[in-house]
Amino acid sequence: MSSSSSLSFNTTNDITNDTIMVAALPGRMGNLTPEQTAQLKDMWAHLMAAIGALDDENLKEVTRAVQEMDFEAGKVAAAKHGTPIDDVSALDLAAFAEVRKTMSIEQLRLAFWDMVHGDSPDNLLLRFLRARKWDVGKALAMMARTFHWRVFDGKVAETELWGEAGALRDGDDEFLLQFRSKKCFIHGNDKEGRPVVHARPVNHNPKLQTQETIEKFTVHVCETTRLMLHEPVDSATVVFDMKGFGLSNMDYNAVKFVIQCFEAHYPECLGVLLVHRAPWVFSGIWKIIKPWLDPVIAKKIHFTSNTKDVEKFIDISNIPKDMGGTDPYQYVYVEPKEGEAAKTEDSETRKKLENDRLKLYEEMEQNTVAWIKAVTPEEEKQVLADRKVVTQKLRSQWWDLDPYQRAPSILDRIGDIKYE
User: Given the DSSP bridges, would you call strands 236-241 and 195-199 parallel, antiparallel or unpaired?
Assistant: First the structure.
């Protein structure tokens, strides 16, 4: 790298199994190229500056150091990954800044940490980077829009605090119908260990609920599925079993929202999507839907017509019997019970745990700034060792807080979600 910068980066990939939680797949912590490590640090620097944890001068220094890095394979992956980092596009940074104007610094900060949940914060940022082909500016803009959506439009935290128990308490049969109708449930795993979301469109009547309810249910399914992800598994498989599907089941607005979630708000959470036993009438519908899809999402969609096709992705023992497999499981909705969400009403304990968590956020932010600014391999190794400890504390403490922020789901009631 150029000697003109006062900040330097260790360009070896020292983020190994011994230093931090690791995933085997490329583009995750533990399997990053030097270019990707630099891009992750650059994205962290912009986020830390946005929430007030890094001053502007240090941000400029980090960005300048990344721009000036030379790698054996070429300069900062300009050819491989599209936009060079020194062009972290003014338009994309402007889009990031525009969203920031709609949120206070504290709202932005808490929106980020709320989305982390029990995940690795690094791997959350890497989801956005992979989704935007390692273009830091575009990843930042996408992430900021997601934060805004989670707080103001999706109202994710509110929905999960309310949950199925809230629907029972408030007499919201329309929301509970989404579960009772058996149109969607989470069960089993595919060959990669990914949780499987089963969708049965034949059980969906577009006239029986509002778009608002559909969106609330979709968010709930997405958030519940995230609870089933454990590194190195970081995505889910979705199976649309189209048996019995007819035009009366088609809901274009619901499809558009699901696509929006996959593409814009839950990046890199979809592993594979199977469209199984689609009837001839679906061919015309597919011609309408396909242009809506981002090419990356479209490549993950596979049409299957028989059990052998599905077996390429899911072992026969995990394929339901009604799809030709040997899994005897039949989804039956276990209703929420009065009092099961009592902890969500214990505001005193929740506040104490939230304050404990705020201290961990600050600790992680300080470690992040130290990692960004680390100069020597030895310094970075120590910072990453500390980072592993803080990341594990964040995950453990999140599970302590979870029952005070989230009403139990059916997966809690049947024992599929286990507190760690």
Answer: parallel
Angstrom distances, CA of residue 141 to CA of 144, 322, 415? 5, 43, 38
DSSP characters over 353-415: HHHHHHHHHHHHHHHHHHHHH--SHHHHHHHHHHHHHHHHHHHHHHHHHHHHHS---HHHHTT
Q: Is 119 exposed, middle or buried (0-12, 13-18, 19+ CB in 10 A)?
A: buried
In the chain, which residues have pLDDT < 50? 1-23, 71-86
- pLDDT by residue (tens digit) across 131-183? 999 999 999 999 999 999 999 999 999 999 999 999 999 999 999 999 999 99
For residue 284, give both structure tokens.
């015309």
- Alpha helices by DSSP H, 52-155: 56-67, 78-81, 90-101, 105-116, 121-131, 136-148
β-partners of residue 240 are 199, 275
Task: Return d(Cα 79, Cα 38) in angstroms, integer.
Answer: 16
* Structural domains for the chain: 1-169+345-420 (no CATH), 183-323 (3.40.525.10)
DSSP secondary structure letters along 289-341: HGGGS-HHHHTTEEEE-SHHHHHTTS-GGGSBGGGTSSB----------TTTT
Is 240:274 a contact under the CB 8 Å cutoff? yes
CB 136 within 8 A of CB 182: no
Q: Which three-class secondary structure string do you get for 25-76? A: CCCCCCCCCHHHHHHHHHHHHHHHHHCCCCCHHHHHHHHHHHHCCCECCECC
The span from the CA of 115 to the CA of 111, in Å, is 6
Closest-CA residue to 344 (of 404, 299, 255, 304) = 404
* Residue 312 confidence (pLDDT): 98
Edge to edge, what strands does the sheet with 270-276 contain? 184-189, 195-199, 236-241, 270-276, 301-304
Instruction: Give the C-alpha separation, 331 to 380, whole Å.
Output: 49
298 contact partners, CB below 8 Å, separation of at least 6: 290
